[in-house]
Each structure stands twice: as C-alpha cells, then as structure tokens.
Design goal:
Distance between the termini of chain A: 25 Å
Order of helices and strands of chain A: EHEEHEEHEEHHEHE
CATH architecture of the largest domain in chain B: 3-Layer(aba) Sandwich
Largest sheet of chain A: 3 strands, mixed
Number of strands of chain A: 9
CATH class of the largest domain in chain B: Alpha Beta
CATH class of chain A: Alpha Beta
Distance between the termini of chain B: 31 Å
Oligomer: heterodimer
Radius of gyration of chain B: 26 Å
CATH topology of the largest domain in chain B: Rossmann fold
Strand content of chain A: 15-25%
Largest sheet of chain B: 7 strands, mixed
Number of strands of chain B: 31
C-alpha cells in the first residue's frame, strides 16, 4: 500500500483553509505548521503567472530523514507506506530536520496543544521532539488497520462513501487536494496520475516523493 | 525550502491525457468534516447555523456537548450555498466565541477620561436618561448606527425604537459603506432592490465575469463553486477585472488590469464592442429595455458626473444647454432612445480608452466577445464598483451589458453584487435600517407605508417622521452639532470611516454622548485596540452570534436561521434585549412587551412583509432549518413546501410575487412577453409601452473624486485579506489566523518601488494623502523570485501606479488616508480610489 496525495494546482485558491484545518486537527502550535501553501509569482505585467504550491510532507519512498535517524524513531510505516515518527524514541537531535530537503519537519519547543484547543483524537507528542505531517495517521492509519483486522475494504479513498481522509483534504475549499492508495489501480489517485501530467518537488534529490502536482 | 522554479516546473511524469477530473466529477458532499475544539468531550447534538462573517452566508453545524459546551464545528453538508465547505475564518469561529478578551462589564467614562465599572441596570438607566434628555429638545438629535452583522430581529427592534417610538429617522447602518450603491443600482435599473438571479447560476454559466471582486479571498466557498464548474465544463471562461493580480485573477483565463477609477470607461468600451459587432439581442431589447439618462431618482449626480454628461451632450443633436438643469430636475429626465445610446457609445471605441483604462484594446475586444457569445453569463462584483463616487453608475453599467445581450432572468444568466457582510441584505436592506427605509422595502417618504408600519408596530398614528434621516457620512459630520447622542451597536466606525482623523475628533467631542454595544470592550489584555469602544462614553457588553440566535440574509436573497445553540456568557444580554431594556427605562415598555423571544420579532416582521416584493411570510424558523434557508419571495401559502421559494425573480416561471400579481390581475397577462420575463419593478412608470421594462442608462465615463497628480501620483485602493474579517476585532483573536497575517502592509509594484526611493520588501514606507499620513511595512513581490519561500502575510501584485493596503489592522489605520467623498445618489464613500504619495522612511 502506498498512500499518496495528488494536488490539483488549478483549483487551489490559496485560502490556507488546509493549514488551519491541519492545525486544529493535530493540535499544532501556530509556529509549527505541518503544511504550508507557497505563493509563487513570475512573469511581467500584464502576463503574470501565479501559482499556489500547497506542501504537506512528501512521505518519500526513499526518505533521507529515516536513513539519518540515529534512534530509528523515524520509520517508514509498512502498512500505509507513510513516514511516521515514534515520539517515544525521538531524542530531539534534529538530524532529520537538516536531512529533509523539503524542510517539512518542525521541532516542539513547547508541549503541543497549548495554543489551540486540543483535538482529543490527535496524536500525543511530548515536548522536545520533532514532528511533521502524518497524513493524519490517527485517522487514516487507524481506519486501514481496523479494516484489515475486520477483513473489510478500507475507506481511505477519495470519493468513497464515508471516506476517511486527512483534514487538509476534507477541508479544501477548492477540492484541490486528492488522497488515496496508489498501489490500488482502481483508486481515484491512480486513475488521475495515469491520465495526467504530473510534477513532484525536487525530483533531482532522488527521494521519490509521494505528493504529486497536476495542473 | 530552496527549490528552483525550473526544477519544480520542468519535471513531468506520466503520459499526457485528458483530465479525469472532468469526467469523474467531484464529490461535493465530503462526510465527516468535524473539527474538535475541546478535549475529551462528546458531541451530544449538532445544531445548525449560518457563519458569522461574510455575505456568502455559508451554513455550518455546531457540535454541542452535554453541558452546552461548543465542542466542534463543521460545514452544513447539504446547505445549498457552501455544500459543506468552510473558509479558514468560519472554521475557527470557536476561538472568537471563547476568547478571554470578551467584555463582561458595563463601563462609564468619568470626567478624567477613565472608565468606571457599573451594573447593567445603571448602564441602561444612563442610556435611557441621555436619550430622553436629548429627545426632549429635539428628536433628531439622537441617532442609531447599526452593524450589518446583527441579526435581522435585532436590527428590526432597534429600528422600531428609533423610527417608531422616538420618531427620528436617524437610523443608519454600516452597510451604507459597503453596498448602498448596489441598492441604488438595482433601484434605478429595475425599480426593485436585490438580485434577479442566485448563486446556482454560477454552476451552469459558461462565462463568469468578476469585476472589482476578489472572490477567491473574500468569498472562498463561492469561488470554489466557480472552480468546480470549470472542472466539469472545459468551456467555462473566468474573466477577472481588477487592478491587482489577486488569486482570483491568477485563476482567471483573462485578467483585465484596469486603473482604479476607470471602470466606467472599460464597461462603456465593452458596450461599444457589443453594439458595433452586433452582439446585442434585438428581440430582448424590444421586449424588455427602455433607454434613459438620469430622470429616475432625480438630480443625483456629482459635479464631475454633470461635467461628463455635458461634455457628451455637447457634440450631439441632443445638446440643449438652456434646458439642461430643468431636464434633470424633472422626474421624466432627458428623453433617450437606442439611436441616442448608439451615438453616445461611439465615443468609447476600445482604442480610444486604452490610455485611460490601461487595458489593451485587443483584450477588451476578446473579453467582450466571450462575454456576449457565451450561452450563459454571470457577472459578479463586490466593493470595487460599489465603493466609488460613481458607484450607482457602475452598477447600472453592469446591467447594461446583461440587458443589451439578453443575459438576465433565466437560469445561468445573472448579474449580482456580492455583499460583504453577513446580514447587509437581510437585516439592513430588507428590514429597512437605513435613513430612508422602513421594513420590507417600504419608504419613510410614502404615507401609506408609514401608516402600515405604524399599525404593525402598534405605535400612535403619525409617530414615524416623513423626513429622511442623516446618511452615514453626514451623520458623523453632524456629531456634536446636530447629533448629541449616538447609539452604536456592533460596528466599528472609529476604524472604518473614511478620512478617519476628522471623524475620530468628532467622536471624541464633549458635545456628543456615545453609547457602544459590542462584544469587545475598551480594555484589552492583548494590546489590541477596539477603536470604537475606546471612544465610548458608555459601554455595554452583549452576547455573540449563536449565543442569541436569529436570522441572516445573504447576497442571493436567502435567509436562514442560526439556532441559539450556545450558552450565554455570565450576565450578557443579546442586543435586542438591550434595546428592549433601554426602551423600558425610557418609559416605552408597552411597545416592547410582546417580544419575549427572537421568534416573536421574526414572526411580526415576516408577517408585515406579506404582499411585498420581499415576501418572507412563509419563512418560519422551522422551514428555514428544514430546507436550508429560504429565498424570498416566499409567500405564507408556501410555508413548509420544498422549493416554495424563488430562485429567479422577474420570471413568471419562478417568481412567486410576480405570479401573485398576475393572479390578482394587478399585471395583465397580456403584457408578459413570450420569454416570461417581466421587470415588474418598472411597471406603470411612464407611457404604456415602457411598462415593465428595465432601464439601460447612458453613463459617460467619469473620473474618481480625487485624481492622481504630480504631488500625489499613486492611486490607493483598500480592501481585505482572506484571513481577516473587516476591522480584525474577531479574527485577530484567532491564533492561527493572526499568525498568518499579523499586520497590515502596503503592496507596491516592483517598478514603483524602484521609482520611489528603492523600496525593498519589508521597508517601512510613509503613505501620504491630502488628509493624513501613515507608516506601513512595504510588500514588494519579486517576480523573478526563484525560491519557494514562505512569507508570513500574503500579498498580491498591484499594477504600476497603484498601491493597496488592507484595513483590518487596528494599530495602522489606513482610513486616515482615504477619501470621504460620496456617491450623489447612494451616499457611499469612495474607499477604492484616492491619490497618495509614498516615501521610504
């Protein structure tokens, strides 16, 4: 299984609802946004080109943060194919933060959940550890695990009935974020990527990112 | 993250193919968008409501815990406006409800300028005493200034206290500053207020023309609908006319970067192309259009508009200088016809106005052809055309484009002004809280209307004054002289009035007693300024939004009820309860005894709208919650019937009011043309052949009140950003929103930045106009930037010669700089254009 996110840039309004949704869902301190929306402008008057680039964690297939972690706190989750941090093992050395070419990782200087009211379901993270986007593992990961245990089909699929999706995907006003399993040839993301041109961030770094941009 | 642009853009993966998105379609109803605010609390029930912020009017659901706690929020999945989506402001409403900065004490200003804590009983006593003392001398020395974010019921009750019981028409609302021109635009063209179409037209239109509207930031769920429409239908063209390269312009297929204040020239040039290339609909014009100059509404032109009109008439066979003034004074106005209109428009060849508008003629031709040739076209505008000294004219011009091409009154064809505030349409326009209005589109000047409302209000005959009250700018001009007591509820004029310094001085004057009702008080621990409460002589705290419950009416004539879902804080009272208390203390308790709940007020109001064009009599609380609001006209016979409301007005197939008029025989069935469209607002005005015909006005291009010159070479335009709502009193209390845009900025074009002293991004800049100056941080977007760097606070690119400043920041009051000139008809000030100079500090 390989959970991926496809971002349709033509529909991103740049309103940052996803950032706010992520902050609330994961009880993130406001300085430590897990996802960002970059705003790039180029060209000359009157032919400007403006592009919004939403950026969650890329959950790379060859993640440098996992390779560098001295305590094996950063791991590639076998079930979902995402990169997760075992907060109990993290010693806060922050090697991973320097290894990540996308700079998605942030450090918990304070105990999270102090600034915004906490979501009871959000993962507990102690002070002094690194953290990052989990693709809402407490929702999606749990659903996949439960489904496997119960022997049913999981609902981590865009457009499925009662779908379980990351907060940013659910909350996107322009419906620009799309989420699903790329290993499943019938999933919405597989069909999208087979029919569209796509881009990834920093292909040259060889990290094989799992967030794809279409236009 | 350092990623080069080339690296990002140059990489492509799979094969090229058709986009699947279009075929598969989108699942609009995403389940489970629940956002928890409270730890470990179970949600006992979901209660429905309408978002507190903008005029889109999104539906939401509040998750309430066992003890009445506000636990979670989510979009109302099947609400026909937002279909379950919420923008970042709506998503974080809980933080505003629960912030520790909420005021809880009544405060009275002492002679030394400090505040003393008093009880609510004392506060209402003082308010009543001050009002009574002033009224004893002169009824018109008191005034009420309301926010268009109060519920309709509260506005209705405040209106009754001042207009019905006290007997003064000095009741104004801050909606005067945001949509008065839209009202006069509708009234002059169609003879009735509020839009013909609705939001659903956006979903089926082929061309969406946005002018002076940054919907992607200001009405995100609505712009989301535009994007979904385009994703399903590849033929959809989005056109954005805006001096700034906003997110809306970035998503548009065509951007028309016109110079601020040249909108009339631009639209006249578009009309030229329509007429010259024969893109107009002759049948529609014959059936539904009459041509006019000024007549309707009398002599309401500014000097500059008169000058423009004279200049046009001079060269034509309609030149009658001796009669000019007389013809405009007279109700009938200048005679006009299609031939005259053609002659008039011939001066606006796109090539001729290229220099004035700053838009290439080629682009105007292309845009107009798409506009006119598309099967279904929707035009949306917001404050750009409204906040202008030619606001009414701009609105007329938009309808001209639609009327000439016959694109109005049918599904998918609409032209409407998107309101800024949640209840500007519902509370202010419909329930009549402006100086010349009475509830349900009635006028204070009309004797029959006054009598009807006196009966409804159960006040003695003759209580309502026939004299039109003071409009907002005049009201604040009269502070201390004519007006001695000003009662402000739920508005922040000390930050939003144009030419602010002048009005702050007036508000500080000892000759005026200011009563302020707000959720935020003058004293704050977070260092934030609540400008109006700071100037209050008497401050009364009140409850907020879902703590009181009531009805909001949004831009598309849809009203919906917000449940009283939240527990009231401590001793706070709702605004309507406070109005009632003050009235009781003034000795007018008997007129307010019958109002025990908001539903009592609503039921009285909707009953009095029966038979009017704004017929809300079928919209009971229950009906609105069941069917996701109701679009008026909805007569009481249709209460409880699904789709018993009106999607499109002025079309006999849809409009419940028009159907009723036909049934009653007030309009003869024979008058209705084959396409079922009949603009009944213009019925019985003028000779018979003009009955039921909308007006196409000749509106010559007019410059703004203040033009750029050598001393002040730049145009300033103001507005909002997506994260902050109006004056920021609410959204600046939400940590995640405040973090994103912590302070205001001035957007400057790269070329201007170089020209005016090599200004770099982040430099402090002094912005000066004839009225005042202010130091703000510069935001210069580098278009050659190659990195994806994140800038806290967002900005768009302005075109050369223009600067933009948002007005949410209470520590940097940009309105010190703006111009207080008003539109002659709508009395709306020109926030959108004034001449400024900038200097690096």
């Amino acid at each position: 299984m390989r959970l991926v996110m496809v971002i349709d840039q033509s529909k991103c309004l740049g309103c940052k609802s996803c950032v706010v949704a992520c902050n609330i869902e994961n009880s993130i301190e406001t300085n430590n946004n897990w996802t960002e929306v970059f705003d790039m402008v180029s060209g000359q008057f009157p032919n400007y080109h403006r592009e919004f680039v939403p950026r969650p964690c890329n959950h790379c297939s060859k993640p440098p943060c996992v390779d560098i972690c001295p305590t094996k706190a950063s791991q590639k989750d076998k079930l979902t194919g995402t990169v997760q941090i075992d907060q109990k093992r993290c010693t806060g050395c922050r090697y991973c933060m320097s290894a990540c070419p996308y700079k998605v990782r942030v450090f918990n200087w304070k105990k999270p959940g102090k600034v915004l009211n906490e979501n009871p379901a959000s993962p507990k993270r102690p002070k002094g550890t690194t953290e990052k986007c989990t693709f809402c593992f407490h929702k999606t990961g749990k659903e996949i695990f439960d489904a496997k245990k119960e022997g049913r089909k999981h609902r981590v699929e865009y457009n499925a009935k009662d779908a379980v999706l990351p907060a940013c995907v659910e909350k996107c006003v322009g419906k620009s974020r799309i989420f699903g399993d790329l290993d499943d040839p019938d999933s919405f993301v597989s069909r999208l990527l087979s029919k569209n041109q796509y881009k990834v961030l920093l292909k040259s770094k060889g990290t094989k990112p799992n967030v794809f941009y279409i236009n | 993250m350092s990623i080069s642009r080339r690296e990002f853009l140059g990489i492509t993966g799979a094969a090229v193919g058709t986009t699947l998105l279009g075929q598969a379609g989108y699942n609009l109803l995403q389940p489970g968008q629940v956002y928890y605010f409270k730890k470990g609390l179970e949600i006992k029930e979901w209660k429905k409501g309408i978002c507190r912020y903008c005029g889109t009017g999104c539906g939401l659901k509040m998750g309430i815990g066992a003890n009445g706690e506000f636990v979670a929020i989510k979009g109302w999945e099947d609400y026909p406006v937002n279909f379950g989506t919420l923008c970042p402001k709506g998503l974080t409403l809980c933080h505003v409800v629960e912030t520790e900065e909420r005021a809880e004490d009544c405060l009275l200003r002492q002679p030394d300028g400090t505040f003393k804590k008093i009880s609510l009983d004392e506060a209402t006593n003082i308010a009543a005493e001050k009002l009574n003392t002033a009224i004893a001398k002169d009824k018109d020395s008191v005034a009420l200034y309301l926010g268009a974010q109060l519920f309709t019921e509260e506005i209705y009750l405040g209106n009754k206290l001042f207009k019905g019981v006290i007997g003064t028409n000095n009741v104004e609302s801050n909606a005067r500053l945001c949509m008065a021109s839209a009202v006069t635009g509708f009234l002059t063209t169609f003879g009735i207020d509020e839009p013909i179409g609705n939001y659903a037209d956006i979903d089926t239109a082929d061309c969406i023309f946005l002018i002076g509207s940054n919907a992607a930031e200001m009405h995100p769920p609505l712009f989301g609908r535009i994007m979904w429409n385009r994703s399903k239908n590849k033929n959809v063209t989005i056109i954005s006319a805006d001096p700034r390269y906003t997110p809306t312009a970035a998503h548009a297929d065509i951007w028309l970067p016109f110079l601020p204040g040249s909108d009339l020239y631009l639209m006249n040039a578009m009309t030229y192309v329509i007429l010259n290339e024969g893109l107009y609909d002759q049948k529609f014009i014959d059936d539904h259009v009459q041509f006019a100059i000024g007549g309707a509404g009398g002599y309401a032109f500014t000097d500059k508009q008169h000058q423009a009109m004279r200049n046009f008439l001079k060269g034509t066979r309609f030149h009658r200088p001796a009669e000019y003034k007389k013809l405009f004074d007279n109700k009938k106005g200048y005679p006009a016809d299609f031939e005259m209109f053609k002659e008039f428009i011939s001066a606006y060849k796109p090539e001729n106005v290229e220099k004035i508008t700053g838009v290439k003629a080629k682009t105007i031709y292309k845009t107009t052809r798409i506009f006119a040739k598309s099967k279904r076209t929707v035009t949306l505008w917001t404050m750009g055309p409204n906040q202008r000294t030619s606001g009414t004219w701009c609105n007329n011009m938009m309808y001209n484009l639609h009327l000439l091409t016959g694109k109005i009154g049918t599904p998918g064809n609409a032209a409407m002004s998107l309101t800024g505030q949640s209840n500007a349409c519902g509370g202010v326009r419909e329930s009549g809280s402006l100086a010349h209005l009475l509830p349900a589109h009635r006028s204070v000047k009309n004797k029959k209307h006054r009598q009807e409302i006196e009966k409804v209000w159960e006040v003695p005959a003759g209580s309502i004054s026939p004299k039109v009250g003071l409009h907002t700018v005049k009201l604040f001009d009269s502070l201390g002289s004519k007006v001695k007591v000003l009662y402000i509820a739920c508005s922040n004029p000390a930050q939003t009035m144009p030419n602010l310094d002048k009005y702050i001085k007036k508000m500080k004057s000892r000759n005026v007693f200011i009563i302020v009702q707000d959720i935020f008080g003058p004293k704050n621990n977070d260092g934030f300024h609540n400008r109006t409460p700071e100037l209050a002589d008497l401050f009364i705290p009140c409850s907020f939004w879902a703590e009181k419950g009531g009805v909001f009416g949004c831009s598309e004539r849809r009203s919906c009820y917000t449940t009283k879902a939240l527990k009231n804080r401590a001793n706070l009272k709702a605004d309507w309860e406070l109005f009632k208390m003050v009235a009781e203390k003034m000795g007018h308790g008997k007129y307010f005894e019958k109002y025990k709940t908001t539903e009592d007020i609503w039921d009285e109001y909707r009953a009095c709208s029966y038979g009017r064009d704004v017929d809300l009599s079928g919209a009971s609380y229950e009906h609105m919650l069941k069917y996701g609001g109701a679009q008026w006209p909805i007569p009481r016979e249709n209460e409880g019937i699904k789709d018993g409301d009106t999607k499109i007005r002025c079309n006999t197939q849809y409009d419940r009011h028009l159907q009723r008029l036909l049934k009653k025989g007030e309009i003869d069935q024979k008058l209705i043309p084959a396409d079922n469209i009949y603009f009944y607002g213009q019925h019985k005005k003028g000779p018979k052949k003009k009955w039921g015909k909308a007006k196409v006005f000749l509106r010559p291009g007019t410059p703004p009140a203040e033009e750029v010159d050598n001393l002040f070479p730049l145009s300033l335009t103001t507005g909002r950003v997506v994260q902050h709502w109006h004056t920021g009193t609410m959204t600046m209390r939400v940590p995640s929103l405040k973090k994103m845009v912590p302070e205001c900025f001035i957007e400057i074009n790269e070329l201007d930045a170089k020209k005016y002293g090599d200004i770099k991004d982040g430099d402090p800049v002094l912005i000066t106009s004839k009225r005042g100056s202010l130091e703000i941080k510069a935001r210069v977007i580098n278009t050659k930037q190659r990195d994806l760097t994140n800038i806290p606070g967002r900005a768009s690119i302005v075109r050369e010669g223009v600067v933009f400043v948002p007005f949410f920041d209470s520590s940097k009051l940009i309105n010190i700089v703006t111009n207080a000139s008003v539109d002659a008809k709508s009395k709306q000030p020109e926030y959108k254009v004034c001449a400024v100079n900038i200097k690096k500090v």
